[in-house]
Amino acid sequence: MDLGLSLDTSLLLVALVPFLAAFVAPFVHRFIRPVSGWILALVPGGIFLYLLGFVEPIVSGGTISAGLDWIPSYDIRLSFFVDGLSLLFALTISGIGALVVLYSGAYLKGHPHQGRFFGFILAFMGAMLGLVLSDSLLALFTFWELTSITSFLLIGFDHGRQAARRGAIQALVITNIGGMFLLAGGILIHQIAGSWDLSAVRGMGEVLRGSGLYGAVLVCILGGAFTKSAQFPLHFWLPNAMEAPTPVSAFLHSATMVQAGVYLLARMSPSLGGTEAWTLTLTIIGGVTLLWGALGSLRQTDLKQILAQSTIASLGLLVLLIGLGTEASIAAMAVYFLAHALYKAGLFMVAGAVDHETGTRDITTLRGLADKMPVTFIGAGLAALSMIGLPLTIGYFAKEEMYLGLIGGQWETALALIVLVLGNALLAGVALLVLIRPFLGDLAPTPKPPHEAPIAMLAGPILLGAGGIVAGLLPDWVGHDVLVPAASAVLGETVKSHLSLAIDLTSPLLWLSALTWALGILFYRQADTMRTLLRRFEQGLGWTADTVFDAVMFGLIRFAGAVTRFFHHGQLEFYLTVVFAGLALAVFGPMFAFGGFDWLVPAADLGDWSKRLVLPGLQPYEWGIILLAVLGLVAVLIAGTRLVAILSLGAQGTALAMIFLLFGAPDLAFTQFMVEILSVVILALVMTRLRLDERDHRPFEDWARDGTLAIVCGAGVSLLLMLVLTGTLDTRLSDFFTQTSVPIAHGHNIVNVILVDYRGFDTLGEISVVMGAGIAILALLRRRKAPLPPRSADPTEPNHRVTEAEA
Amino acid sequence: MNTIIFRTIAPLIVATMLVFSVYVCLRGHNEPGGGFIGGLIGAAAIGVFGMASGVATVRQALRVDPMAIAGFGVFLAGFTGVLSLFTASPFMTSIWLYLPIGETTIPLSTPLFFDIGVYCVVFGTISAIALALESDREEEL
């Protein structure tokens, strides 16, 4: 496995290679179009195989960490950490990722943007792998936000449809709010624990729980996890995210994206867990989400929506298990995560295959597809068996393990047990619904004649379903290689596995399972009645979290509009008045406050102006230039038309440029010349474009107001400059530049050397601003023209009018 | 601006100004000049050209959208800064290369290319604005 790279580099590559692959994916796809799915699936597949090499050291109790310096001055490292928990997640992500890439090669065959899609999904996978492998809280946050952004791109992939855009924006808004919570939580943890590293924070649970900020940290971390993992009442973005192409749903809603919140909770449970607040919040929210999602699932008729709602239920189940925090429930969490990822990804792929080959996903119209799509049916069957939790599947272990920790406890645990049994039974009913309704019975007509899906679309469901069964046949392996390392990583102590194939008829666990199945069958048989009841309930409720979201977003836009209209009302004159009044204040305020006037004109000299005002000894041509500047100024003031005023202003500026030239600032003079010329040209153009009057008509009040402001500002700036000149200039900076310009920057023109070398970073910022301003100006000019096209779009229309008028 | 004299002389002026703008830009490190002022002169030339020959002609002669030139300028300036990372020095540390050609030595440096980036930004942005203002209503901006 070792490619001769150091561990640091190779672990870093696991998170970065998908991004590189994402970058080249569109080009690869262009050249090998028919097989691009097979080739690109090698990337996640390779990562999966590479990560398998870590199983051995991790199972024997070790951890692996690696890292690179990122921002050493702030002690921030791009550090990675592999333990049982992160390895379980990383293997699931890369394994399912490979199958999803393969699947989407066939599912989106012939789609014009398939290459782009591969890029998005690989980048998403890289973000997800980085998230679960990160040791640094900041790196975790960065990858967390990257998953939000890439999932936004994936959900909105069909950007032509309004529903897809809405789903994408909703997911982005909700998960980004969570991301902000996570960032705040991470910073708080760093403040308390003094380290960014999760591996270090894990050992400081006492410190964190004892801190006065514990409540704030808890709110932030839970806020992050609950938004990402779609917990009630923030669950509504998940069903809307079903607007994504099915391979995206299969990936995002089985092992990735929504599981990031579960991962965060599991990761944080040694440092934050165990308190009453933690246990209560997680169990209550998780339990409510479980039941809400499972009932919501029965309400739907669209296969994908059914699965989406059942994902919400499963997420609630996982959160509930983490909240309980006992050895058995954490072990159940690890096994259930794997079981759910395997069967949910498989079922989504089945739903996609059914949709792809029949043209509909509605379980009320689909019937008897088993004959036409036998392999798909087998895939669906394997997954559904695991979802129901029948013996010999991994789902069975997960369920047994859940119940194990809750038998014979207080009334709280009994309540949790009831919720779990009900939730599992509802999910079993959903599994039966998904398996039996579309596939068994007599064949019903569908929009497209049904036929078997291509092999690339069957590989996923079959392999994942078989994986669920194989794992169910190998309890020792699941216990030793999955349950123990992951649960030990969460609990911080070695856990013992007690999974076994043996069925003990005296065990209450078996009877609880039997009860679950019986209830599941009951729910399946009553599915239609329940759907009607649930729909009636929802209609009675009148509003959902979804409508609340819309109302909030709409209100936000309205509020932003109101604020904008208040500050940005479009009266240019008023803006300028405010700006220049502000300038006058900024200049005169400090001058008054710090006694600048006394400095400039000492009281003793007040009576004797001639002492202060001395004519400088200038050459005649220098007087000439100053005269030119004054003349230009006077001409601006008395100019009859705007054009003359613009030209006079240019002449005045040119005279100023000549003054710069005479007093040793050729660069400044040069630039001033060009600026003056261009200003005259552009002002003249703007004037013709705006169709201003030739003359400037202003009422006397405006004229007086503008004149006063101008005089005040001008006088203020002049006084300020005179004040500056009375002091001694600090020449340390200019001395430094004069001395070092040639030896270290190899340039004689100090102004230019400062611009491109000493302060190059500033210049880079400035030119970016120049370009940004240019784009804004072009946009404004275009906008002015925008109302025109509707008239000119139909060129015949004006002609008609002309002819009519002539007639 | 449709006088014969202007239209005849304009191309000459424009050509001179463009060459001069490049000259001013390149000599900027040691003599008065630099990318900013060079870009302004170049943009003024484009403005003059647009007045004399019409915006469509200028756009055709430029071949590239002026805003694309500006974007390239920002990229070039940023890129020269990144180069120093490969020499294990901080961002934007200048790198100098003395290239002997015949008897003379041509000093090449990242600040030079940075300045060319500045030239492109100023030239592109101001030209784009000038052309947009000059273009007539029916013309595409």
Could you give the distance between the termini of chain A? 88 Å
Uncertain stretches of chain B? none
Fraction of residues in β-strands of chain B? 5-15%
Helix content of chain A: over 70%
Helix fraction of chain B, binned, reads 55-70%
C-alpha-based Rg of chain B, rounded? 18 Å
Beta-strand content of chain A: under 5%
Q: Write down the overall geometry of chain A.
A: elongated
Number of spatially distinct domains of chain A: 3
Radius of gyration of chain A: 36 Å
The major pleated sheet of chain A works out as: 2 strands, antiparallel
Category by helix and strand content of chain A = mainly alpha
**Helix/strand order of chain B, N-terminal first:** HHHHEEH
Largest interface (CB < 8 Å): A-B, 42 and 49 residues
| Total domain count of chain B | 1
Give a quick summary of the entry.
Chain A is mainly alpha-helical and 807 residues long. Chain A has helices at 7-31, 36-40, 42-52, 55-59, 84-107, 114-133, 137-155, 162-193, 198-202, 205-210, 214-228, 237-240, 246-252, 258-272, 276-299, 303-324, 327-358, 374-388, 394-404, 411-439, 455-473, 475-491, 508-525, 527-541, 545-567, 572-593, 596-600, 609-612, 620-638, 642-662, 666-690, 700-726, 732-745, 750-758, 760-785, 789-793, 796-806, and strands spanning 64-71, 76-82. The radius of gyration of chain A is 36 Å and the shape is elongated.
